[in-house]
Amino acid sequence: MTGTVLFAPLLPWPVIAVLAVVVLAAVLLAALRGLSGWALRGCAGLVVLAALSGPALQQEDRAALSDIVILAEDQSASQRLPGRPEQSADAADALAATLAAREGVEVRRVTVPDGDEDAGTRLMTALSDALAEEPRARVAGLVAISDGQVHDPDLALDLPAPLHLLLTGRETDWDRRLLVKNAPAFAIIGEPVTLTLRIEDSGAAPTDTGLAPIDISVDGAPAQRFNVRIGEDIDLPVTLPHGGRNVIQFTVPEADGELTDRNNTALIQINGVRDRLRVLLVSGEPHAGGRTWRNLLKSDSSVDLVHFTILRPPEKQDGVPVGELSLIAFPTRELFLEKIDDFDLIIFDRYKRRGILPALYLDNVARYIREGGAVLVAAGPDFAGADSLYRSPLGAVMPAMPTARVLEDPYRPTVSEIGQRHPVTTGLPAAGDWGRWLRQIDVDARSGTIVMEGIDERPLLVLDRVGEGRVALLASDHAWLWNRGYEGGGPQLELLRRLAHWMMKEPELEEEALTATATGQSMRILRRTLQETVPPVIITHPDGTQTQLDMTEAQPGQFETRFDGPEIGLYRLENGDQAAVIGLGPAAPREFEATIATGDVLAERVAATRGGVLRIEEGVPRIRTVRAGRPAAGRGWIGITPRGAYETQDVRQMSLLPPWLVLLLAAGFITAGWLREGRR
């Protein structure tokens, strides 16, 4: 039980102060005049002033509350390295038992979970959450059992008691890790890009190792091994072999005695892009749709277009001297013999044989196709005649043969059944509502894939692969009608854009492809195919185990499935004759960027609370009681600060000057003063 004097004034304190001045002045005046009762009258004034201040005695019945010690156990990924789980558990149990045995102490055990790959160890966040659930006035100490590799040390947190860090691990621990300092997300195909790597040893590493082996693998191919210096930056030039995603894996073999190999691997995923796509467009003659291809290709900033339109063929005899013509001579030899391999795509728009391109040049174009080039023929009526490109060395690589018929009937282009699954034509906007075309060249398909049909389901757009290259035949010159909005128009720009990019082997338009995209530890596997069914996909894990998953058709020509990888690393995918690789998660997550136990990260936070950093391998520390503000840690011991918290169970108040007592004392002092003065 405790007692406290409280005041509840009947008048405001300024008024009481004025009355006190008046009483004091009256007493002084009486004393100066020699009145013998001035002291007694002064006592009467004090009694009245005391009564006006309202003094009361408050008595409380209090029950002492126990102190709380928060014990945080780090269970992040780095704490699962060999030896640390047992070390942490034994120390936590011993500390909890010691604290619980002390009178008036309670223990709150909290767990610091394993966060996301990029989040790391959020120890201070866990302590903040624990403090939010406890009365701050009862917290006497905080003890963290961790390796000290904390990733939120700067979290704004006001700690009410000493913070102690008990380090796991051994002083003899050492680790080797691989760092990739710069890795671009995109790189130009065929041009080297420089990656900067570094191999570092930390902790009590051996001093006799100056070199370390490193294995480099591209897209899961057999790795090549090199020896590099430890502790030095390595500039590695890499040339991407293909467009799309390139997965490069760097691995440093595990050394004897190192703590973990989880940070010995780095997965780099770089998208290969073309610097500039060079396109040669040859228009045989001016026509209503002559600018269709030009406008399309010029609108793409990544395309370098070389366009020639034959305005004055050799057979034209108009009597105008050649020297007076402002036309540019067609550099046929330079384009079709010397620099043909510099182009990614050649388009013949309504071109016919006129002696401008000799058979030798066209034969070189056929060679260009077989060795990886691409040619698109936009056919007009001339394709059906005797001067057709088909009746040249290019005929051997054409996917369809003209029948010499030109159909002039209106028709609506449609996507064929197999075209519904081909990436060039699948999902075209507003399919079925397109405007009509007015002309089609009748052809018989010999090879390739018919993705669009015209009059009476005759081939309209045929795509084919020849050797390493590609050929496309559009059997009409009326695609421009869509551009003009004839009968509502159609997806002319989208169709021709897809067609041109398929010809130039853009990965996203491959009709047979297996791809995967990763989100954290989950991957979405997509299979594009012209077939109606696909076999299950086989997933090979980083440790060599395999998982087989069935794929479901999401839309025509696209099958997909999802897979959650149980571990980070490189996964290999196989589906029929298609294969792909993908990396899940960072190869060295944040938890394994630094694995050696240290108190440096939390040193400032611990010192600010007068706590300490001790190693568990030196023994579980003893517990002492220290006063607030005093050093709370020493050799082999840590301290907690008793808070003296209590709970008030009952409160009673009693007035020290009840009215009857005030009246009695005041009247008594005044009467005594009057009597004393009267006797004088």
- Oligomer kind: single chain
State the distance separating the first and last CA atoms.
Answer: 51 Å
CATH superfamily of the largest domain: Class I glutamine amidotransferase (GATase) domain
CATH C-level category of the largest domain: Alpha Beta
Classify the secondary structure makeup into a structural class. alpha/beta
Map the helices and strands.
Elements: E1 2-7, H1 13-32, H2 38-53, E2 55-64, E3 67-74, H3 84-101, E4 105-112, H4 123-132, E5 139-146, E6 163-167, E7 174-182, E8 186-188, E9 192-203, E10 211-218, E11 224-229, E12 233-239, E13 244-251, E14 265-273, E15 277-283, H5 290-298, E16 303-309, H6 332-338, E17 345-349, H7 359-370, E18 374-378, E19 400-407, E20 414-415, E21 440-445, E22 449-453, E23 459-466, E24 469-474, H8 480-483, H9 492-503, E25 513-519, E26 522-528, E27 537-540, E28 546-549, E29 552-555, E30 558-564, E31 569-575, E32 578-584, H10 603-608, E33 613-615, E34 622-625, E35 633-634, E36 637-640, E37 646-655, H11 659-679
Helix pairs in contact: 1-2, 2-11, 6-7
What can you see in these coordinates?
With 680 residues, the protein is an alpha/beta fold. The protein is built from eleven helices and 37 strands. The strands form nine sheets. An eight-stranded mixed beta sheet has the order 16-15-17-18-24-23-22-20. The protein has a five-stranded parallel beta sheet with strand order 4-3-5-6-33, with helices on both faces. Helix 1 packs antiparallel against helix 2. The longest helix is centred in the last third of the chain and has 21 residues. The protein is elongated and about 155 Å long. It starts with a strand and ends with a helix.
